[in-house]
Amino acid sequence: MAIPGPGVAISMNTIATEFGGTVPHSLSEYYRGGGLVPNTPGNAAIPTSGQIAMGNFYGSANRTQVALTISGNTYNYDVYNNRGPTYVAGATDLTVTVNPGVTVGSTSTGTYAMLVPSSFSPGDTVTIVNNGVIQGMGGAGGTSQFMPGGPPTAWPGSPGAGGGSALYVNRPTTVTNNGTVASGGGGGGGGVGIFGNTSPKVTNVSVSGGGGGGGSGFNGGAGGTAGNVPSKPTDVRGSNGSSGSSPAGGGGGPGGVNGSNIGGPGGAGGGRGAGGANGSTGSYQGTGGQGSGGSGGGAGNYIVGNPFVTWPVTGTRQGNVA
Question: Which of 7, 14, 47, 137 could make a disulfide contact with 164, Cβ separation 3.0–4.6 Å?
């Protein structure tokens, strides 16, 4: 807590309470940069040597307070890189506040929405007050594979991608979570594509499965594409999956339909902190294999580095933890 400004009486005890020192106290203990008083911009009125008076200590402080506010949606917020020009290594209490209605997201599943690296000095304190949403990116939906030709068969869908992580912490940090910290959702698996026929092999039929839905995220995962099929009039392509959004995963696309030959639909993308659904099998007429839908991608972590974190308020936390 800083010493009051001019107009408020201060004493040697006021200075000692702020900066410490050895009894009996003397002003000569309290030169700026001398060990007790940090050499910070807020303490510029305190001399480093020579004449010193109590009036030099108005408004001075033992520690520097840095308040950072995230007032608009942003991505990949590195707390250390945003520490600002008043930061003093080892003597700073830094607080990051995410305003209500604001989302901090990520541009890829391989990067974090917000990170607190180990670059701070051990004497610093870092606090995050989240009144909004901190969320990783959603995983992409799986595609529906289709490879025409050969005997009647079914082609499995590809798996959905895993969701990204929200918060990375690599030094002691306090997180007051009044909002939501959530991983990206996993992408849905792709549906099954079918190369079948009508019995007794009158016409070959090709239908592709649907693409998986993208996982929830900020950014949301892209929907998976449906498999391409040959260009005969009897061939029917499925639909792509839908992209995910911040609150919800995207829907899986339906498979192509030709009579009783139906491609498997893609799985839905996972919501905040949830894995994606598996893609489904289709149905066929005549001979042909069923195959299997692609597996849904897993959810990411709402935090990586939880042993470093103190949670005075836990709020809503969705996803895995590491």
Answer: 137
Phi, psi at 306, each rounded to 5°: -60, -30
| pLDDT tens readout for residues 142-163 | 998 765 555 556 678 899 999 9
Q: In what order do the strands lie in the sheet with 77-78?
A: 77-78, 114-116, 167-169, 301-304, 320-321
CB 263 within 8 A of CB 210: yes
The pLDDT tens digits for 59-71 are: 998 889 999 999 9
Q: What is the structure's pLDDT at 75?
A: 98
The number of beta carbons lying within 10 Å of the beta carbon of residue 121 is 12
Q: In angstroms, rounded to a whole number, what is the distance separating the alpha carbons of residues 108 and 23?
A: 56
- pTM (2 d.p.): 0.85
Q: Report pLDDT for 300.
A: 97
> Looking at residue 287, what is its pLDDT?
54
End-to-end C-alpha distance for the chain, whole angstroms:
35
Cα–Cα distances (Å) from 162 to 25, 109, 189, 255, 296, in that order, read 61, 8, 11, 23, 8
The average pLDDT across 257-274 equals 91
Answer whether 142's CB lies under 8 Å from 278's CB: no
Could you state, in order of their start, the residue ranges of all structural domains in the chain? 12-57, 64-137+301-321
pLDDT at 18: 87
Residues paired with 193 in a beta bridge: 155
d(CA 69, CA 200): 70
Residues 316 and 179 sit within 8 Å (Cβ to Cβ): yes
* Cα(252)–Cα(99) distance, integer angstroms: 33
* Residue of 194, 221, 213, 212 lying closest to 294 (CA atoms): 212
Segment 281-298 shows an average pLDDT of 76
Contacts of 274 (CB under 8 A, 6+ apart): 185, 186, 216, 249, 299, 318, 319
